[in-house]
Specification:
By secondary structure, this protein is an alpha+beta fold. The protein has 4 helices and 9 strands, in the order H-E-E-E-H-H-E-E-E-E-H-E-E. It has one domain (36-261). Helix 2 runs antiparallel to helix 3 (92-100). A hairpin with a 5-residue loop joins strand 5 and strand 6 (154-180). The chain has helices at 2-26, 81-88, 92-100, 212-223, and strands spanning 38-43, 52-59, 64-77, 102-115, 124-148, 154-180, 184-206, 231-236, 241-261. 21% of the residues lie in helices and 55% in strands.
């Protein structure tokens, strides 16, 4: 992954250098009129998901700009929790997990934008390849379980899991940006699919020490969790449960940002 990113970065640098030199020669007349080349934007649609996202974009030439996005979601309960609980219905185990679970995440996304319209300098339709590093955190994930003890009695207990998952992905964004007056801009991320790899580590503390006859049941319960595309490795001892996650990761960027240009 590191070699791929290095080679990609070198190719982009060479491409930018050549295009920048060509546009500097052809834009003498345009430079007589000052054109705003800096954009600072806030993603207004992500607030509904309890995410706070800010982006800085700098136009390098008429058709090319660089943008850097930082997103943060402080540890909190699930967005739209009440709606999710209604969908779960009478499933008490799932409802208990949703009520207690807390999640958070942060992401850093650099991208290079190629504007295809005539206006340029951060205006019009664009295509933007990007890289994203993201870290997702989960805490207070309570998993109930049961097992038969040495006296053949049923024991009900629980494990509280917490940990994080990191993901490195690359993708392609399609979008459009407009100038709303002299200082205001609107950026519409139409569609930005991305794909890569992820790794995670979740650790759980049982509500009571787990005897040998219960460890097999817990291991099977966690291995049976349906987590799309990833591989789960579960280790269980009397006082600790660990689940490692490794596999592909995919997502989609979309939203509307409002900001200033200067």
């Amino acid at each position: 992954m590191k070699k791929l990113l290095l080679i990609t970065g070198l190719l982009l640098f060479c491409t930018l250098s050549n295009i920048y030199a060509q546009e500097q020669q052809s834009s003498t007349s345009e430079n007589k009129v000052r054109v705003p080349k800096n954009y600072v934007k806030f993603n207004i649609t992500s607030i509904a998901l309890k995410n706070y996202s800010i982006q800085y974009e700098r136009a390098l030439t008429k058709t090319i700009s660089l943008a850097f996005t930082f997103r943060d979601m402080p540890s909190t309960t699930l967005p739209f929790k009440s709606m999710i609980l209604k969908q779960v219905g009478d499933n008490e185990d799932a409802s208990d997990v949703i009520e207690k679970l807390k999640i958070g995440n942060m992401a850093f996304t650099p991208e290079i934008r190629f504007y295809l319209g005539k206006k340029g300098y951060g205006r019009g339709f664009y295509i933007a390849p990007f890289y994203r590093y993201a870290k997702y955190e989960a805490s207070n994930f309570v998993k109930n379980y049961e097992y038969q003890d040495e006296n053949d009695q049923q024991v009900n207990a629980s494990i509280t899991l917490s940990g994080n998952v990191t993901a490195n992905t690359v993708g392609l964004m399609f979008g459009a940006q407009w100038a709303l007056g002299k200082f205001v801009c609107l950026d519409w991320w139409l569609l930005g699919p991305h794909y890569g790899k992820s790794k995670g580590d979740l650790t759980g503390i049982p509500s009571q020490p787990i005897p040998p006859e219960g460890q097999t049941e817990i291991r099977q319960t966690l291995e049976d969790l349906e987590i799309p595309m990833v591989k789960q490795t579960v280790e269980v001892s009397a006082n600790r449960v660990n689940m490692k996650i490794d596999g592909p990761w995919a997502g989609i960027r979309a939203g509307i940002s409002l900001g200033i240009r200067f």
